[in-house]
């Protein structure tokens, strides 16, 4: 199924329902369809056609969403760019993907002008706000273009998006996602538009991220009104939810924690929220327990996936977040809160050892997935594609294990696993235990190279405001809860953990900055 059908169907059924609320603007589904057609015809007049690449670099806005559907209408390929990218990174991504036209915010014009001599394929530059010299005005392009509908020919297997990974090591890789990458998930897991039922979905996850784009597709298909926030800020988010009576939200764990840490949290009425989906980074057990208490009217969903899997492949549903101490299964459900749930019906998931064999229940291995919606491969990266896609399975690089009831628990990224004296250590297991200390706000475990042991365990710890804690306190807290070889051998207190925009801790940064040898082990 072509993704443009998601918008076409909803625009026919509920044309007058608000599709997007952004700042003071409200755009109905009918208007959105019209603007998409005009933009598509405008891009076509600039020479954009089937297979061409169109990049967008801007914070969350209605133009970002319009640009995707207009690009798809032309059978062209959409390339969302991280709006935090530096000049060198932007140059690489535009040249690597062979972008023909770029749509960007006014603030990025100077950077694009600076790198223009190095760009090899860009022919058209379109500015969403005031257009400088050599730039086309986005608004003028829509105003002066035909509203005639365009009918794409691409089937579900064709690439519709090239989405660059974060590139924490080496250069970013462009993940090729097909129309099926989105529609397969949506048709299997999202209720279609209902003329009688309307929901509002706040979206603050960046649209250059897979979670943001998947949320857009699901909202369009479901006829939900998207309430857009340019970038996350806790106070603004709570005000939008309260004022716009938002029913759904997609968040990363750090966002949820920041909300509840706000001194003004209790001043806002957030009772309209019926569903909060969280993911993109591990959720500390203490944070989700507190969230369940603080949002008594809200049902929670833990969605696990990555760019290469086109977002969610496993889910911990609302029923597994419904925990009560009076429940006979309370302890089991409490433990499951730390899991990523079970595989979704439209994807097959296994956990395998280094030889590709299924591991036994309780044993660590790499999570692999298979299904129609997984990536087609990495753009211009044949070797990287072969390494990740093997025998029809996508190797995620995430390690985990099954419990006896079929729930999957993460152990960490393969590259972050520690090996001390031949014993494998799962960072997330140690981190969760450290974060259960009442004075610990956040924690991360890294391995420090050691001649004798191979690696030794260093804990990076952020203390809660107003609390006091010593390294001995941390170690003693861990002592009865884990085997000796897993315990931190060194504790470093820092003000905050380095994170990417989606809240994932940048272990590479920690390893580079705190790689000093650990002294003799006591």
List keywords for this structure.
522 residues; 26% strand; single chain; 9-stranded mixed sheet; GMP Synthetase, Chain A, domain 3; 27 strands; Rossmann fold; 3 domains; Luciferase, domain 3; alpha/beta
What is the secondary structure topology, with strand pairs?
Elements lengths: L3 H10 L4 E5 L2 E4 H17 L7 E5 L4 H12 L3 E4 L6 H11 L1 E6 L4 H7 L8 E4 L8 E2 H6 L15 E6 L9 E5 H11 L10 E4 L6 H13 L2 E4 L5 H11 L3 E4 L1 H9 L13 E5 L5 H10 L4 E8 L4 E6 L13 H7 L5 E2 L4 E5 L12 E6 L6 E2 L3 H7 E2 L2 E10 L5 E6 L4 E3 L2 E3 L1 H9 L4 E11 L3 E10 L7 H8 L11 E4 L13 H7 L9
Parallel strand pairs: 1-11, 3-4, 3-5, 5-6, 6-7, 10-11, 10-12, 12-13, 13-14, 26-27
Antiparallel strand pairs: 1-2, 8-9, 9-19, 14-15, 15-16, 17-18, 18-21, 20-21, 21-22, 23-24, 25-26
Helix pairs in contact: 1-2, 1-8, 2-3, 4-5, 10-11
Give structural notes.
The protein is an alpha/beta fold and 522 residues long. It folds into three domains: 228 residues, ANL, N-terminal domain (Rossmann fold); 67 residues, Roll (Luciferase, domain 3); 97 residues, GMP Synthetase, Chain A, domain 3, CATH 3.30.300.30. The protein contains 16 helices and 27 strands. It has a nine-stranded mixed sheet with strand order 2-1-11-10-12-13-14-15-16, sandwiched between helices. Strands 4-3-5-6-7 form a five-stranded parallel sheet, sandwiched between helices. The protein is globular, with a radius of gyration of 24 Å.
